[in-house]
Specification:
Blueprint (H helix, E strand, L loop, with lengths): L9 E11 L5 H10 L12 E11 L2 E10 L9 H5 L4 E7 L3 H17 L10 E6 L9 H4 L1 H8 L3 E4 L8 H16 L4 H4 L26
Amino acid sequence: MAQSSVSLYTETLFKVLVIGDVEVGKTSFILRYVNKRFNEGYKTTIGVDFALKTIEWDPKTVVRLQLWDIAGQERFKKMSRVYYKGAMGAVVVFDITNSSTLEAASAWKQDLDNKVCLDGGHPVPAVLLANKCDLTGWDRDLLSSLDSFCKDNRFTGWFETSAKDNINIDEAGAFLVKQMMLCDTGLSNEEHRGDGIKVSEPPEESQSQSLCCWRPRL
C-alpha cells in the first residue's frame, strides 16, 4: 500500500503595534492593509483597537498578524507598557504634511524601545510610514532626511505611503513581516541586525534594496 504524504505547515502569530500621533492615518493604514478599503469618515481611535490579517507566506507557512491600533492621544501613552507587551514588530506612522508628527514619531519610537524588546535586548523591528503622500503642499526635501532619521532612531526602514490611494501599503507590511520572520527564526546578526543591515528577501519576492533604512524606488 502506498503511503499517503502529509503536508506539514507552520502557523506563526505576530503582535504588531501601529503607533503615532492623532490623525496621522494609523486606522486608515490598517483598514487598507487588512480590508483593502479606505473610509473618509472614520472616527478617532479611543484606547486601542484590533485587526487580524492572515498571510500565506509560502506553501508551508501561514503568518497571522494581530494589529494593535493604539490611540495617539497623550493620555494613552501612560498605558502603553500594557499595550506593547508581547509585540514582535511595529508600524510608526506620521503625516507627511505635518512635520511635527515626524518629531512625535521619534518620541513614539523611543517609548517603544524603552518598553519592549526582543530576547537579547534588541529592539523590535519597526517601520516608519510617511503617510498621506497623495496630498499636495508638502516638502519633498523631507524625504531626503528620512534615511538618517531612521538610522538615528533605529527604524528598520521607511516607506512613503498613502492609505487613500493604496501606495506602498502592502509593500510596507510585507517588509515588516520579513523582518519579524528573520528575528523569529534566529538568523545571524550579519543578516538582519546592526548598522547597515542586509536582509534576505522573503519567499517569492524579487530582489530589491535591502539596506537598514530601506525605502521604495519612486
